[in-house]
Amino acid sequence: MVNYRNLGRSGLKVTEITYGNWLTHGSQVENDAATACVRAALDAGITTFDTADVYANTKAESVLGEALKGERRASIELATKVFWPTGPKGANDSGLSRKHIMESIHGSLERLQTDYVDLYQAHRYDHSTPLEETMQAFADIVRQGKAHYIGVSEWTAEQIRAGHALASELGFQLVSSQPQYSMLWRVIEAEVVPTSAELGLSQIVWSPVAQGVLTGKYLPGQPAPAGSRGTDEKGGAQMISRFLQQEETLRRVQELRPIADELGLTMAQLAVAWVLQNPNVASAIIGASRPEQVAENVKASGVEIPAELLARIDAVLADSVVTDPRETEKSSPRL
Known about the structure:
With 335 residues, the chain is of the alpha/beta class. It is 38% helix and 13% strand. It is built from 13 helices and 10 strands. It has an 8-stranded parallel barrel with strand order 3-4-5-6-7-8-9-10, surrounded by 4 helices. It has a two-stranded antiparallel sheet with strand order 1-2. Strand 5, helix 3 (98-112) and strand 6 form a beta-alpha-beta unit. It comes from Cellulomonas edaphi. Belongs to the shaker potassium channel beta subunit family. Pfam families: Aldo_ket_red. This is Aldo/keto reductase family protein.
């Protein structure tokens, strides 16, 4: 079964493995298959689920809400996000204005078939709205009982510090940051992680398997396997293209296989277990198109990778690793 960790300095516990439905529910995977994956996650001991209103243009939230119907609500930790447009892309259909946040939380709760979410997250930083307005809206949502905790996603260390200060003044706390993080993408390590640890936030990381690259199925000099994310034209191929264009990176990933074998893990399990070695990471988000993928990935929970093997991983990947903290700032568009 899956272990639990506290989210930041809060009392909220989340499973080390979070089930997320970013690129699958409502788009890549039929609803029956999506529901089967959610059931597999529950059967494996996962109780933390992550989605966002923008995923499949609201359909992902609807699919997840339907799949979780009948489950004891208090036994589930449910997280969603706000920022990106889900409507006709009008002037107020995106960002973190009070108007957009308030309208978005109502839509998310309706689609998820719940009265509240456990974690409501700012999906990006909004450069066009005063941070005071954004944090006041979040404070009101917490006081209204529509969200228990507030988090952010892809915010820089400086933005997290400013948001944390305002939250404290308003009587609530930021508890989490949701960045991309993997063996190949370590841009949070220099600034976001130490700042979060200081302020009492945990990381809930997405793409711990680097969109599938760290499974080892993408081979240098060969086309992406049929049916893989690398061939998906609904968004998956675009997301993974950065890594697939780097032959040297794909070659180095293949050299991780002996390390995975030594630990008795698959390549994917090694990748998920690796991010969980970071003490500031509370949970790693996994997605799945088949129930058996869920069952395999949860085996990464509780794995301890010896220091010498962590050093070997660093040596193998070497300069294929992206570490520049400025990459986080690039992910927040100026609307």
